[in-house]
């Protein structure tokens, strides 16, 4: 499929921005974004593409078919604003890697076939290169590939196109530096217990992690050992790093990671704030179609007191077992606070959970709202009635909480979430921890870890009430949100980094790509 403007089905041409931003012949840089098709990676990559477009760049976003409709509303909105953003849809060769029909959607890929899925993604390299060359825009040639770090094959693609390549991370520099340092300094050498804490070397403050909490990228996934090495090598050879973070939140960790990697790190977040400057419609449709009408949700929130509502969501991947669902619901009920609870895949639980949720809704009618499916999270968190966020600490969610100025209850499930939780609680001082110390997902032993209703109730009461300690936590969250807004405004660090990206990866008058160090 050729590069398309999916708003009208025609081949896209850069357009002038009605808001006065550069477009058309003024465009000098052309970024090709290759996200990985997980919502926590895809959503910030698309937002970053939009932000670069507001600063005078052309952005092409590569998607696979299952995800086109999910980001179409966002791209349609960009087109109405005159932003030069385009989609390039490419199908995955599922059969070649033994994947079933429909496995383009990662929600339908069982964990035992994830190695097959990543091999299928790597097969995109040849058709993507062919398509980019076939659709070569003489006036606006590709000047930079921005690929998710999970796409090590993108280094060969960029080399074939003879353009620089940046690694995109939907993670914070604190997480990246901790992961890098424990591996670089062999912190786990000789440590037999995966839950034994070690001190992360090379930091200005004391941070302790275990191998279970921070194993390194793909280091704890059977069958991904070689892939993990490829990811690391591709990162070593990158021309720079782009992250959804902002300098004022973690300056020592941004500097530390840039120094450790010996390459430029561009912090461009919080990228979700792009939608704060637009409309409710675009924030409500960000990432997927919501399972609740936006107006209905807003009317419910409008009826609540300021900062009185607890928002509860564990993202697109994290799954709770049936017992945990019931304990969480009872804890929220006992807290006495109004709440919005996003229940993922409720229909997949047993009849006992389905009946429990129905009965809970009856008991908390008017005080509690259950959303079964995708929620308009940015819109909800931005509402004045919301006072805290119970989160799995995926980085998208964490940054959205930061941007909204909300304290958080940290409930990590796997991957980078434990380090994000440590950042929120131990470094930023905006979080309350429920005490989960090891992963509950993608384990070989299927160990059951349940947070009891009393712990849930206590954590919610602490983050919502909390006396002087709670007020100080809320004050820190408000200060951090102000810094986040300043970062993305003219003169801010993220605003300046976006401008710098466009300037560094542009085409000069001789038609050569400029990529200054």
From TrEMBL:
Give the matching InterPro entries.
Answer: UDP_glucos_trans (IPR002213)
One matching Pfam family is UDPGT
Q: Which GO terms describe its molecular function?
A: UDP-glucosyltransferase activity
Q: Which UniProt keywords apply?
A: Transferase
Family, as annotated: Belongs to the UDP-glycosyltransferase family.
Protein name per UniProt: Glycosyltransferase
